[in-house]
Amino acid sequence: MLLLTSPRIREHEITDRSVYLDRRRFLALGAAGALAMAALPARAAPLAAAKSGFTLAETLTTKEAVTGYNNFIELGNSKEAPAQLGPAYFRPQPWSVSVDGECAKPGTIAFEDLVSPHKLEERIYRMRCVEAWSMVIPWIGIPLADVIKRFEPNSKAKYVEFNTLVDPERLPGQRFSMYDWPYVEALRLDEAMNPLALLAVGLYGEELRPQNGAPIRLVVPWKYGFKSVKSIVRIRFTETAPRTTWMRIAPKEYGFYANVNPEVDHPRWSQGSERRIGEFLRRKTLPFNGYAEQVAGLYSSLDLVANF
Amino acid sequence: MDALLRRRWAKPVIFALCLLPLAWLGWRGATFGLGANPIEALIRGLGDWALRFVLIALAVTPLRQITGIAAIGRFRRMLGLFAFFYVTMHLLSYIGLDQFFDWSAIGREIVKRRYITIGMTAAVLLIPLAVTSTDTMMRRLGGRRWRGLHRLVYVIAPLGVTHHWMMVKADITEPALHALILSLLLGWRMVAARKGKRHNRPSAPSESPPCAASSSPSSRS
């Protein structure tokens, strides 16, 4: 109907010539701007954080690689897709996280209320993907243990599970892919309480971008990257070990623990060495990704070959 | 169309087209266009094209028979050799760039990783086909033996598709597509064979010897 009636244009509605010319200039500027935007990676808001003792004497992987080479199937299957689709589809605000299961203080908590009681710190960690490549990333985040304590897990809580957002509008990869969403990852509670475990909200002095798991993600540097679940909307405390997404997809290839271990090969990738992104020669993979001192004690009574 | 494909420039043009994927990968490699993990991107790119050329070479005979354009057969040997070329580049980049000539590591990978065992088998099996692709070798082997040997491609191609399928972690769209194309190409041959057609029979009797050799060695022996 609207299309059939010709609108009556009043005199004052007709665009003034100077404004009209201005609009052309604006469009020209806009086109130049769009070109500049295409050439430059999308910006992320700056985020201040205190330096921490968690640092490394290793060269950082470039920001371009950290924000441009990602595994995030919810945003596409290739390494480049998340950086391309993320900024176009994904909006991290408003964001809240629901907490449930074996704890005294369940409920839904806004992202700001989850993060603001804690001091943001910068931690430089190695990140080792199960596909035998690695990076060194300056994360910004808060210790997972401090967050977990606020929810007061009870004596039955042995595991903590994390779920990624399910929203095919914002995570278009969920429209095409055949997996059961949400993406599920989990840690044993004592692993989650280890001081290394981090809830990251930023990297390289900026807020997390969609492709890196905005607005909040897990970082467990002694485990393969797929354990570090992105865009978390749910934290659940459980008595039994949750079945994680990759365990469901390929139980022979991915175990619950997924600790970085050069001695235990993945059927497809030798885990003895890795390619550090930006380097030519492969380097040796370290047990627990170089964090054995901090975490090996968690597994003293565990057969790490059987519990891969 | 047949006349067009018999022009003198037809082969050089197809030859140049077959080099375009390599040129494109090389250009991206030189201009940092291969992403954060250029070695992996290069190896995968070469592997993709190796597999595509195997399928393209396998499509020559069905295409020739279905369209009736006999001159298509002139390109079969070249396309098959390009498949071998891209397989070789794929293998060399894995050995030299990914593993940096760490022969013991490569040996362990071949034994341990089934997808590498399969890929390596396919690559090795291609060698006798490439070696016997010359006119002299065809004549020396004789048509029947040559044809029998070159039927190895019906083993090699499925091995190649399986190799790709096994190394894909999640999205199997591409290997599934390759498998579909391959089963159509092999299925067509089975149907053609059952109909009692000798699908390597040349449809144009006036072929000059080198072209005939590349499309139909059996009829010549």
Describe this structure in words.
The complex is a heterodimer of chains A (308) and B (221). In chain A, 40% of the residues are buried. In chain A, 22% of the residues lie in helices and 21% in strands. Chain A has a single domain, classed as Sulfite Oxidase, Chain A, domain 2 (Alpha-Beta Complex). Chain A has 308 residues and is α+β, with helices and mostly antiparallel strands. Chain B starts with a helix and ends in a 6-residue tail after the last helix. Chain B has one domain. At the A-B interface, helix 2 of A face helix 5 of B.
Question: Secondary-structure map with pairings?
Answer:
The complex is a heterodimer of chains A (308) and B (221).
Chain A: H1 17-39, E1 50-51, H2 63-68, H3 81-89, E2 96-101, E3 107-110, H4 111-115, E4 121-128, E5 133-143, H5 144-151, E6 159-164, H6 173-176, E7 184-188, H7 189-192, E8 198-203, E9 206-207, E10 217-219, E11 232-238, H8 245-249, E12 273-276, E13 283-284, H9 292-295
Parallel strand pairs in A: 1-4, 2-11, 5-12
Antiparallel strand pairs in A: 2-3, 4-5, 5-8, 6-7, 6-11, 8-9, 8-10, 12-13
Chain B: H1 2-5, H2 10-30, H3 38-67, H4 76-98, H5 103-112, H6 114-131, H7 135-141, H8 143-150, H9 153-167, H10 173-194, H11 209-215
Helix pairs in contact in B: 2-3, 3-4, 3-9, 3-10, 4-6, 5-6, 6-9, 9-10
- Order of SSEs of chain B, N→C? HHHHHHHHHHH
Q: H/E element string of chain A?
A: HEHHEEHEEHEHEHEEEEHEEH
- Tell me the number of strands of chain A: 13
Through-space gap between termini of chain B: 29 Å
What is the highest CATH level, the class of chain A? Alpha Beta
Please sum up the structure shown:
The complex is a heterodimer of chains A (308) and B (221). Chain A is an alpha+beta fold and 308 residues long.
